[in-house]
Amino acid sequence: MKNVTDSFVSLGYWPFAGSFGFNTDILATNPINLTVVLGVLIFFGKGVLSDLLDNRKQRILNTIRNSEELRGGVIEQLEKARARLRKVEMEANEFRVNGYSEIEREKWNLINSTYKTLEQLENYKNETIHFEQQSAINEVRQQVFQQALEGALGTLTSCLNNELHLRTISANIGMFGTMKEIID
């Protein structure tokens, strides 16, 4: 390390060379060459390197700005989605509660309607049975009355002769006459 610093210090003491040649002292020539190359690179490459770094910086800043804008948009969309989710959850709960109460109400309405229908059917059945009973009783009465009339007519025809028939008619006419006098 001491040799490297000594070579820098001794640069001022070098005599001017009269001719061009190779310097075989590696420790003395390397730092000089590196210093020259770096100096040329810095002098000429400073603008290019500065432009490259500025362009890179602008791309990075643009990327960050775009990322921030996208992040803001995504956060806004996320908030909207969360708000929609809350709204949908509230509506779903409302539909669930209303649905259950509506189902329960419909169930009771159906049960009540079924009971009413069964009661009506029972009433119709009873009315039908009563009607059929009355019809049967009336039919039996008519048949009994018809048979009684036929029997009475048969008895009357066999027992009545013309004279008895005329007396019966006269008696009936007399009864109708007295009934008319009573009514008037």
Task: Annotate the secondary structure layout.
Layout: H1 2-9, H2 26-159, H3 162-183
Helix pairs in contact: 1-2
Explain how this protein is built.
Helix content is 89%, strand content 0%. It is an all-alpha fold and 184 residues long. The chain starts with a helix and ends with a helix. The mean pLDDT is 82. It is a single-pass membrane protein. GO terms for molecular function: proton-transporting ATP synthase activity, rotational mechanism. It is found in: Membrane; Plastid, Chloroplast thylakoid membrane.
Notable features of this structure?
89% helix, 184 residues, mainly alpha, 0% strand
Largest sheet: none
Low-confidence stretches: none
Order of helices and strands: HHH
Strand segment tally: 0
Percentage of residues in DSSP E strands: under 5%
Q: What is the average of the pLDDT values?
A: 82
Task: Decide which structural class fits the backbone.
Answer: mainly alpha
Q: Give the overall silhouette.
A: rod-shaped
Rg result: 67 Å
Instruction: Tell me the span between the first and last alpha carbons.
Output: 169 Å
DSSP summary: helix tally: 3
Oligomer: single chain
Helix content: over 70%
Membrane topology: Single-pass membrane protein
Keywords: ATP synthesis, CF(0), Chloroplast, Hydrogen ion transport, Ion transport, Membrane, Plastid, Thylakoid, Transmembrane, Transmembrane helix, Transport
Function: Component of the F(0) channel, it forms part of the peripheral stalk, linking F(1) to F(0).
Pfam families: ATP-synt_B (PF00430)
